Amino acid sequence: MCCDGTLFHSVLLQSGDPSRKLASLGLKIKIKKGRSYFLQPCPAHEGNRCRIYEDRPVRCRIFNCQQLLRLFAGEATEAQALSKIQEARRQVDHVNHLIDHLSETNQKRGLTQRCAQALQTDVKTPRHAELETAMKKLALFLENEFRVKPETNLV
To answer: Do the domain assignments include residue 5?
Structure first.
């Protein structure tokens, strides 16, 4: 979920990242306010695998979600972590289903951006409210179970 646009909108490149090489590997590097980044979903994410794994950016190398951190710390079992991942994927599938029924959106954009795009209509239907509720529930779940504060993600 860190690569498919569920958890993050973009990935900020770090000082050790060779942006030209990453661009040659298919990442669309953008620059804003002097900072280089690429948008999610990651173009190197194919079939739940990283096509450029050996050459992936530093942030991708060091990121560990809360589930991995809990597993490494012995605070959760693999089965518990997998259960949280399955629940997150179920919620993501539900949100995607609702988005698809409301509007045609750009599949190359992150989930939050696609949701916002689907909700941008003049006519509000019960599906709009259902999508807003489902997205809020998912965002809270991701915040509580997957996202980490930057200083805690140094494992």
So the answer is: no
